Please model this.
Amino acid sequence: MRYIHRYCESMKCPLLFPRFVWIIFALTTGEPSIAISTAPTNVIVAMADDLGWGDVQYNGGSAFTPNVNKMASSVNSILLQRHYSGSPICSPTRATLLTGRNHNRYCVWGANTATRNITDFTRAQTRALPISEITVAEVMRQAGYSTALFGKWHLGDFIPLRDGNSRWPVSHPGLHGFEQWWATGRSAPTATTNCGCFPNSTCILGHYRNRPLCTNYYTNTSDGIEGWPQPIPGDDSHFIWSLAEEYIREQVNLQKPFFLYLPFHTVHQRFIATDEYRNFYLEKLNTKNSKRISRKNLIKADYYGAISAMDDVVGRLRNLLQVLGIKNNTLFWFTSDNGPSKRGSTNGLRGGKKSLYEGGVRVPGIIEWPDVISSNRVSQFPVVTSDLLPTVQDILGVEPSDDRPIDGISILPFLQGKMEKRNQPIISAYKLRKGRLFQAGRYNVSITTDKYKLMETVQGNTTHYQLFDLEDDAIESKNLIDDYPDITSQLIKQIEQWKKSVTQSVKTVGCV
Model:
């Protein structure tokens, strides 16, 4: 409990709430910079949850995100206007981020769940990230880096759970290269302040239905995996920040390079804002002093407020890197795991969460790295979450440990200004199920290049194709399938080759 003892004596955090808030909001300034002689590249990845392309202010969003805006316009950053999540839903994208491989290759076909009332414990949705997969954390740890994760894991359970004769798969961050971690198994409320008595409030039980689960954080200790079944006082993004801040300071003091993964819960349901952020938006909506605040405006205030709280963390993180003198040699990557739910915005892009149309997979994306990026760029270069691992390998100068297929590419040459076109398409597939891999059923596949995107929709024995020119038609309003038969044929051929490769991967992993 190394990161919590200062806040929670005797596990009574609610009683210490004022002190807790003061600590996690405080950011010491005026510290002397700490120079690292060898200056290896630190890597920080911050991933929002269900944050839509149009939810951020710089893309027309209604949420106030000044710190994300500053990061996007920084002279040392690239604003990626075609940043893609590896999947239109959460767990699969998180898997692609860590492995560099499409999630279908190792059977992470859907959101990792642990609903105890189902009877089929082998269904795809319960698939955890296989231990056999090589993650970016493992690669960096082998290269001498410290590694940590604070936030939403969603790729397996932390302790053995039994129901009848079935055992839930254990696949916690520590088994995938993370030395230090505080994580939840699935989504959690973005705050608890306005959510009543935890964990028996109707809002929490309403979101988690009848699951006998709280939004517990788990951590690794010298005695094993330990749960912390207490409410997180205040905003969850700020709690994650408190852990991250202490971790970063510790690594700088040790003069050790690090990889830090911050998967926020914001802005997945249940989105709840603390009073500070909620009241800010109620004032903007001119309803704070009304006798009766509409449910619609309360929802907006909670949604936007949760985003602004996370935005504050982005600002504090960037400031801390500057104060500690490690901003130049730190690659900071900000993105989201998929498009928005019905409360969020795509700013006109077609589709949303659970869709392979642009609104479901085109997400906010910014990379800041002063050592390499010397002038701000707003780029249409397609980047996907699968690109992280091969990019890190390129930065470290290490070769892949085996010949397993990698779906991402190194974007280091792009960051250096040496690559103008992506040399490998981005391919995604959604709604595959065990025993029906690319067979008759219902699933979608998309292949995206610098200019074109082909969508393949399979329903039963019927296959339907759509071709879009994303340079001229980002909202995917015009199907060009009859206008460019040669391009269509070429892209279909690439999809079929990819399907064969995925099928072979599944056999190799042995997860079907």
Confidence is low (pLDDT under 50) at residues 1-37, 115-125, 194-214.
